[in-house]
């Protein structure tokens, strides 16, 4: 059983490594995509040559990165092979089924502590909108009119 678990753990680690590397490769490709998919052909001979040089540089990077993509392809095949292998005791050797190896069931008492809910006072600030009637004067008030 330990050998089986060891194999499953190794498969899980391999799968995790694959997904990590695949995400990194996808990010790398997304960074290069705008350069390759650009419709900019340059406005003059100098800018066209500059664009051609940058495209050739990206093309070289893609060629060198193809080994990484091939490695990911092989790793994905290994991950798929590992995922499709069903557990079998023949593969593990002369071990008997797991049920025979387990000790008999034992009842265990578990203490559960229950918390009592305590009422709690909470202070809240409440904004209240109050409308105050406004008085409109009929005549203008001037200080100099003797009032």
Task: Give the gist of this structure.
The chain is mainly α and 147 residues long. The protein has helices spanning 2-36, 45-84, 89-92, 98-101.
Question: What share of the residues does DSSP label as strand, in percent?
Answer: under 5%
Number of strands: 0
Q: Assign a percent range to the helix content.
A: 55-70%
Q: What kind of oligomer do you see? A: single chain
- Globally, the shape reads flat
Q: Could you say which structural class the secondary elements and strand pairing correspond to?
A: mainly alpha
- The radius of gyration computed from the alpha-carbon positions, rounded to a whole number of angstroms, is 38 Å
- The averaged pLDDT comes out at 76
Sequence of secondary-structure elements: HHHH
Strand count, sense and barrel status of the largest sheet are: none
Low-confidence spans: pLDDT under 50, at least 5 residues? 88-100
Distance between the termini: 105 Å
> What's the tally of helices?
4
Q: How would you describe this structure in keywords?
A:
147 residues; mainly alpha
What does this structure look like?
The protein is mostly helical and 147 residues long. Helix content is 56%, strand content 0%. It contains 4 helices and no strands. It has helices at 2-36, 45-84, 89-92, 98-101. Mean pLDDT is 76; it is low at 88-100.
What is the topology?
Layout: H1 2-36, H2 45-84, H3 89-92, H4 98-101
């Amino acid at each position: 059983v330990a050998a089986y678990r060891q194999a499953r753990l190794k498969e899980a680690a391999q799968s995790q490594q694959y997904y990590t590397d695949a995400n990194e490769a996808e990010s790398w490709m997304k960074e290069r995509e705008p350069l390759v998919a650009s419709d900019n052909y340059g406005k003059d001979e100098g800018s066209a040559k500059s664009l051609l040089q940058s495209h050739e540089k990206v093309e070289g990077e893609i060629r060198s990165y193809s080994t990484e993509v091939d490695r990911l392809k092989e790793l994905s095949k290994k991950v798929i092979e590992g995922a499709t292998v069903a557990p079998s005791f023949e593969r593990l050797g002369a071990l008997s089924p797991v049920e025979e190896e387990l000790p008999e069931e034992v009842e265990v008492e578990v203490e559960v502590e229950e918390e009592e809910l305590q009422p709690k006072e909470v202070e809240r600030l409440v904004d209240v909108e109050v409308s105050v009637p406004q008085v409109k004067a009929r005549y203008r008030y001037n200080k100099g009119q003797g009032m």
